[in-house]
Write a structure and sequence with these properties.
There is one protein chain. With about 300 residues, the protein is α/β, with parallel strands linked by helices. It has one domain: Rossmann fold, CATH 3.40.50.1820. Helices cover about 40% and strands about 15% of the residues. An eight-stranded mixed sheet has the order 1-2-4-3-5-6-7-8, with helices on both faces. Helix 11 links the parallel strand 7 and strand 8. Helix 2 crosses helix 4. The chain is globular and about 50 Å long.
Length: about 300
């Protein structure tokens, strides 16, 4: 049986390895090692409720030459099973989602990493959607002072954020009730999203399914009304769906069903299926030299 001294030594070695792995975690490296290459502004409120940290955003801007033309701008919507993850909750540990902001800014694109209220702070998914729409309006209106072009704005979401971003694209009523014309947005991107809430419930853990029903249900008709696939049609704002063969099966199955449904109705939406990336890896690796997601996003934006 190992002695107490040896146990402490093993514990210290394990701790050192864990710290080392976290320090060189791709998102952490892509944020902390590269953040000084861009301009960062944190905790900008996008509503009149200025003290609410959930309704604030972090802004990442490229260093631009004097008189440079306005840059494109991306609004990034994080995920977290529609529950209280936050735009910087994982940043001290992993670098997410600062790595996303830094990566866009290093490619000459202004990025707003937004917070928004989630369950249990809100009990209606529409409140989350309205927060995101309010952030989009604020960013668009602020672009002249930020050196970005509100006419070249893109909304990018990952996971639950991918669901919300794609729903904003396809159900134009949400943006319109918040004073935003959906046709004025340059495009929408969903990474590893969920597009049919009712069909996906069986794959969720019990607590997660309960949250989805609380936010977007409770009945099947309401779930369908908050599902992107319900609005499949031939004409809509530019839309890109990104997923990977290594994603969670519920997301990958939904991605392929969405692709088939959009093809049925003659939609020009683009679908990019990458090889191997896991669900969280898709966003944590953004900014790496071998990151396959950012090239797809840049091709869509440009």
């Amino acid at each position: 049986m190992p002695s107490p001294r040896r146990k402490r030594l093993f514990a210290l070695v394990a701790l050192a390895l864990t710290i080392g792995l976290l320090w060189f975690w791709p998102a952490r490296r892509n944020y902390y090692f590269k953040r000084d290459l861009v301009i960062r502004r944190f905790d900008l409120p996008y509503t009149a409720v200025t003290a609410d940290p959930k309704r604030q955003l972090d802004l990442y801007q490229p260093y631009q030459p004097l008189h440079a033309p306005p840059a494109p701008v991306v609004v990034f919507v994080h995920g977290g099973y529609w529950s209280p993850l936050d735009r910087r909750w994982l940043q001290p540990l992993t670098g997410a989602y600062g790595n996303v902001g830094v990566a866009f800014a290093r490619h000459g694109i202004v990025a707003a990493i937004i917070g928004y209220r989630q369950y249990p702070l809100v009990r209606r998914g529409d409140d989350s959607l309205d927060d995101i729409a309010a952030a989009i309006r604020f960013v668009r209106e602020s672009c002249p002072s930020w050196g970005c072009d509100g006419g070249r704005m893109f909304v990018v979401g990952h996971s639950a954020g991918g669901h919300l971003a794609s729903l904003l694209a396809m159900d134009g009523r949400i943006l319109r009730r918040n004073g935003v014309d959906p046709e004025a947005i340059g495009g929408f991107v969903s990474i590893d999203g969920i597009f049919d809430l009712g069909a996906s419930l069986a794959a969720f853990k019990l607590g997660q399914a309960d949250i989805v029903r609380q936010l977007f249900g409770p009945d099947d008709a309401s779930l369908a009304a908050h599902s992107t696939i319900s609005y499949a049609r031939a004409r809509h704002p530019p839309l890109l769906f990104v997923d990977s063969t290594g994603d969670q099966q519920v997301c990958l199955d939904g991605f392929r069903r969405m692709k088939a449904r959009m093809a049925e109705v003659g939609s020009p939406a683009r679908f990019v299926e990458l090889a191997g990336l896991g669900h969280n890896e898709a966003v944590l690796r953004i900014g790496s030299d071998d990151d396959p997601v950012m090239p797809a996003l840049l091709a869509f934006v440009h």
